[in-house]
Each structure stands twice: as C-alpha cells, then as structure tokens.
Amino acid sequence: MSSTFPPAAAVAPPRPKIAHDARAAGRDLRPLLVLPGLAVVLGLFCYPFIYGLILSFEPLEGGPFANYIAFFTNSRLYGTIGTTLWLSLPITIVNVGLALPVAYALRKPSSSQRIITTILVVPITLGTVLAAEGLLSYLSPNGWMNRALLDIGLISEPIRLLHKPAAVIISLVITGFPFAFLMMLSYVTGIDPTLARAAATLGAPPHRQFMRIYLPLLAPGIAITFALCFVQAFAVFPSAVMLGAPAGPTRVISLAAYEAAFEQYDYSLASAIAIIMGIVQLAVVGAVLGLRNFAYRGPAASGKG
Length: 305
Description:
305 residues, MetI-like fold, 0% strand
C-alpha cells in the first residue's frame, strides 16, 4: 500500500508571509535596518552640529562673523589652539609610540598575553576624571611617589608636578595608552604570521622582519590610531583643569569654550570656539590620513585570491 504523502525532503519550509509579500512586490526591506542607527546619528551628531554652527553666526553683538573675529583678535583665546596642540600632539606620539612595540610583543595568543592585555587595558575603565583625582593624591608633595622617593633617599625635597603640564601629560598617557594599545593590537594580530615566517626562511632577522613586513603593513593602522588618539587628547578638559594650570600653561581650547558658555553665558561664542576646535581637529586628522596614502595598502594576509 503506497502512501499519498510526499517525501519529507520534498516538503519546503513555509516562508514568512511578510518577507514573501515584500519579495513578491519587488521590495527589499533590509535597508530599513539602517534607520535606527541613522536616527541616532542625526539626533546626537548632525542636529547638534548644525544647531551649533548656525548659533555661532548669531553673536550677541556685531555681524555674523563677530564671534570668529573676536576669537582671532584675542590672544587669550586664539592662543589656546597652540597650547592644546602643544599638549595633544606629543601625548599622541608617546601613546602610539609606546603602544606599537608592546602590541608587537604581545601579538602571539597565549595565556600570559591575555593576562598582560587585561592589566594594560584596566586604566581605560577609570576615565579621565577618576585618573586625575587619583593623581592628585599620588603626585602631591605628600603623595605616595614623593614619600617613597624621600624614604629611599633618591630626592632631598618633594618633586612638584601638580598644576604643571607634566601632570596633565602623565594623566593623558595613563588614560590614552590603553586605547592606542587595543587599536594597535588589533592591527598587529590581523597580519598573517606566515609572512614573517617566510622572511625568516630567507634569512631575515626579527628586526628586519618588523621593518620590512610588519611596519609597512601597520602604517595605515598607525595613521588611524594616531588620528583617533589625537582627537581624544585634543578634547582634554578634566585633566587640564584638575592637574594643570587652567589660567596659564594648560589653558586649552575646550576650557575657553566652557568659560564662554557657563561663565560669560555667551553660547554663541562658545559654539564658535567649538566649531574652530573641530576645524583644527579635522585639519590634523586630514593631514595624517593624507600621509596614509603613501603607505602600503595591499592585503595583510596570505591565501588564494
């Protein structure tokens, strides 16, 4: 007696009605998945930027460019650009310069690599405010560092680092290095290790493998890491106020925007300063990414194409 039911393999699973109707109508609903993220970008970035840009051309007094003229004719204001660059560029170079060899040394997966990586990344969870608060006690004349050095006998009087650029630099290195390290580690581990092994079979020593293989392949990643770390350092605010001298050597541009908004209650001038701040950042980032075009841009992994 033969069965009238078709074999199980011949029975197709039912298709979702919504997807079937959309496909039947010739519409693809997958692009709609972008809408939530697009709404977040428009609401949290595009709208505030456009609003601030328009507000910067609506000064309390004068014509539409009065805020920008006031900024570039006041040495106390336009001088903050040089001060911020003087702090952020060396800090970025130090963070990327330290992160590159450490990430290269930890490129091979192992249990010790995971432990060391976890230890190095812990400071990123503290934030700039908590790190600055801790350094206030650590670097003070009666802090742990000075007391330890005095007890050992290496110094005869406390080293005064607080309220100077050195304290701000230390704080930004502590909070910025983990970010640079994570970025560089992701790029280093993405390079196929068989490239270095092939060079080793041809007699290339480790330092030449790094200079001829890893460094050219890492150049685009170094540029991206430098740009992101620079933007992070250029927006320094808590460290400059808590550890530095906000009325002198560490009067950064973000502090000038804060004073204009919340001390002078001139939100139009504060918006203009923020726009200038963004333009300077874009100029540096654009220059760095432009130099990236001269680096090697081929594949970093071997295999069949």
